[in-house]
Amino acid sequence: MYEFVYRKPDSLPDALKLLSSDPEAKALAGGMTFIPVLKQRLARPSMLVDLAGLGLSSIRVAGGKVTIGAMTTHATVAGSAEVKKAIPALAALAGGIGDKEVRHRGTIGGSLANDDPTACYPSAVLALGATIRTNKRTIAADDYFQGMFTTALEPDELITEVEFPIPEKAAYMKFPNPASRYAIVGVFVAKGPAGVRVAVTGAGQDGVFRHKAMEEALGKSFSAAAIANVPTAAEGLNGDIHASPEYRAHLVGVMARRAVAAAG
Predict the structure, then answer these.
(1) pLDDT greater than 90 at residue 247
(2) Burial of residue 229 (number of CB atoms within 10 Å: 0-12, 13-18, 19+)
(3) Whole-model pTM over 0.90
(4) 10 Å Cβ neighbour count for 23?
(5) What CATH code is carried by the domain that includes residue 22?
(6) Where are the beta strands (DSSP E) in the chain?
(7) Residues 41 and 118 placed together within one structural domain of the fold
(8) Are residues 44 and 63 in the same domain?
(9) Do residues 20 and 140 share a domain?
(10) pLDDT digit string (tens) for 219-239?
């Protein structure tokens, strides 16, 4: 780990001021991805701006929506009675991220800002048609994810909260890496105000994506049988020591059918 200056501001304006004062400064949320990167000397920021003191940890349910502050930990989302009642699939997803230590440090905003192609939260955001709010604007889920580790966020922009419409039904199923619990393939299925949406994480080379063919089939009949013969092309999917593109394509179908069955 290289030497850096550590700052912990107590307001969002102060954090933004620090980040804008130094082009080599980086924001620190939960640090579950960034700290290992620093330890391996794969990054050399001049300053780390800790976002923990900005008051961005919160959960609100109102107007048919669940709004979660960017610094809310996975464990808080998983244990929230409000989230369990409004969107139980989201609470279940958060409860399956990493291990206990990761869930008590990692944050929803940090996960979405990092946009790891195997992370779980992007599938929920995309399938539920969520809105990402920042210090500058609101960004629709369909516009936010732009490729592997790439989002619509600008250099002077921080996520402040994420707003999820409450669906009629939803479920998330994943085939996890047995060590890291990252999704080798994860599928989030939702039927809500925006219709039926199916989002796949862990499989695509460019990160999370919507499965339009499954959405069309489920829009006609929301049942596992309706997507039993809907194919997923292996082209454009990840291949590594854990699973080939062809196996991931197969898993997409399996996880999607399980998610639809769980959603009821």
Answers:
(1) yes
(2) exposed
(3) yes
(4) 8
(5) 3.30.43.10
(6) 5-7, 25-28, 47-50, 59-62, 65-69, 131-134, 138-140, 145-147, 150-151, 159-165, 169-176, 183-192, 195-201, 209-210
(7) no
(8) no
(9) no
(10) 999 999 999 999 999 999 999
